[in-house]
Amino acid sequence: MTSTTFDSVRGAQAQPPFRHDGHALVAEDGRRLAASWFEPPSGEARAVALVSPATGVPRGFYAAFAQWLAARGYAVLTYDYRGIAGSREGTLRRERATMRDWAVLDMSAAMAAAETRREDFENYRGLGWRMPLLAVPMAIFMFSLTGVPPLAG
């Protein structure tokens, strides 16, 4: 079975997803973060997925996964943490970003952008079922704020 046949059996779109680079998220402290949106070929997303990068990993690493999700109907947001790849300002030695900045400021900006993108985002009830890819980073963010080990910063 070819991949084209496999995709058509699974219901994926024949057209490739749209990638929109050059977006900037703005964190609460005013820092601009490089971001990319991957949109479904139909233009209408059934849900929003937020892909938060691993420590020190640029958003481009997740492009294939984001395209795969977009081909299946998800609007996907990837971004770089401050000091990483497209979000770095100046030399790496001059960056003063901390993991707390990444969790509290950068991830919050990304979650706010994902929330804004979702048109019918009514409340957080059932978030784990409706938007599991957004619920996981949100849960990590909330636990880190409370100081629960091993997320205490």
Q: What would you note in describing this structure?
A:
Helix 3 (99-117) runs antiparallel to helix 5. The model is unreliable at 1-13 (pLDDT under 50). It contains 5 helices and 4 strands, in the order H-E-E-E-H-E-H-H-H. With 153 residues, the chain is of the alpha+beta class. 36% of the residues lie in helices and 18% in strands.
Question: Topology, pairings included?
Answer:
Blueprint: H1 3-10, E1 18-26, E2 32-39, E3 47-51, H2 63-71, E4 74-79, H3 99-117, H4 127-130, H5 132-146
Parallel strand pairs: 3-4
Antiparallel strand pairs: 1-2, 2-4
Helix pairs in contact: 3-5
Task: Summarize this structure briefly.
It contains five helices and four strands.
- Separate helix tally: 5
Structural class: alpha+beta
Biggest β-sheet strands, sense, barrel: 4 strands, mixed
Beta-strand segment tally: 4
Helix/strand order, N-terminal first: HEEEHEHHH
Large-scale geometry? globular
User: Kindly state the mean pLDDT as a whole number?
Assistant: 79
First-to-last CA distance: 49 Å
Portion in beta strands? 15-25%
**Proportion of helical residues:** 25-40%
**Which consecutive residue ranges, at least 5 long each, have pLDDT under 50?**
1-13
**Adjacency order of strands in the biggest sheet:** 1-2-4-3
